[in-house]
Amino acid sequence: MADLIVEKTNHLGILKLNRPDRMNAISVEMLNDLGEALKDFDSDPKVRAIILTGEGRGFCSGLDLKDTAAGRGIGAGLAAPGASHVSTRELPTVTLHRIDLPVICAINGAAAGYGFDLALGCDLRLISDRAKLVPAFAKRGIVPESGGTWYLPRLVGWAKACEIEFIADDIGPARAVELGLANKVVAHEELMEEATRWASKIAANAPLAIRAMKRLFRHGLSEDFESHTHHVLMQLLVLFRSGDFKEGLDAFMAKRDPNFSGR
């Protein structure tokens, strides 16, 4: 059985972490497959949005601590001599940050450790009313290893990030929305339906513009305002020459829904 289920349908790429018996704890195979699937979706012009979720009761329980305790798996490898030279270039969380396709995380159950960071790396988060976020790093003697220390202060501010990680209490669905860590709480049985609805609405919009927006959001985090404005104007010059821009204008004038081609 594959550790990751990969599907493509109606301009959507769907990824399901698939180790339900281990609450979707991260395996080496899952890491490799997830990174490759994200890159494959991003390079496919037919895919316009991605949904990431988990099979079974949990979203992702983090690194597989049972394998780590037995001297196997990812955590054990990081603790080995010479592990400080391990490259982060191909880690899925790095790929997730780099790609231009929007990613919706459908948090179907507990998102702990690596799973918490993985969820934070997505662009939008819908959380089941049965799910929770588990920032338990300080209780395991480690730090958020896959983006949490970068994302959290930007998402919730410095003081709240410190509260979340230093105290390390579980975060329920309503609190996750209040903090800005999730967009919406959804009834568990309706989670994938709602995620698909959101993704389909994104996919119906101009894909070149959506990709450009995400890219500009990302670059804007490290640019001053004037430099960023210049890059926005340069991007607009490109989009003005696209078929999608013409289609958007034609649809507006004809008072009809646009049919974007991504060209």
What features would you describe in this structure?
It contains 13 helices and 8 strands. The protein is of the alpha/beta class and 263 residues long. α7 (148-156) crosses α8 (158-167). The chain folds into 2 domains: 4-203, 2-enoyl-CoA Hydratase, Chain A, domain 1 (Alpha-Beta Complex), CATH 3.90.226.10; 205-254, Lyase 2-enoyl-coa Hydratase, Chain  A, domain 2 (Orthogonal Bundle).
Topology, please?
Layout lengths: L3 E6 L2 E6 L10 H16 L5 E6 L10 H5 L3 H6 L13 H7 L4 E5 L3 E2 L1 H7 L3 E5 L4 E2 L2 H4 L7 H9 L1 H10 L5 H7 L4 E3 L4 H14 L2 H14 L4 H16 L2 H12 L9
Parallel strand pairs: 2-3, 3-4, 4-6, 5-7, 6-8
Antiparallel strand pairs: 1-2
Helix pairs in contact: 1-4, 7-8, 11-12
Q: Any guess at the CATH architecture of the largest domain?
A: Alpha-Beta Complex
Instruction: Tell me the series of helices and strands, N- to C-terminal.
Output: EEHEHHHEEHEEHHHHEHHHH
Tell me the major beta sheet: 6 strands, mixed
Return the average pLDDT rounded to an integer.
91
Give the spatial strand order of the biggest sheet: 1-2-3-4-6-8
CATH class of the largest domain: Alpha Beta
- The helix tally amounts to 13
> What would you report as the Rg, rounded to the nearest angstrom?
19 Å
CATH topology of the largest domain: 2-enoyl-CoA Hydratase, Chain A, domain 1
Number of strands: 8
Number of domains: 2
Low-confidence stretches: 80-88
Spatial gap, N to C terminus: 38 Å
General shape: globular
Helix percentage range? 40-55%
CATH superfamily of the largest domain: 2-enoyl-CoA Hydratase, Chain A, domain 1
Structural class: alpha/beta
Beta strand %:
5-15%
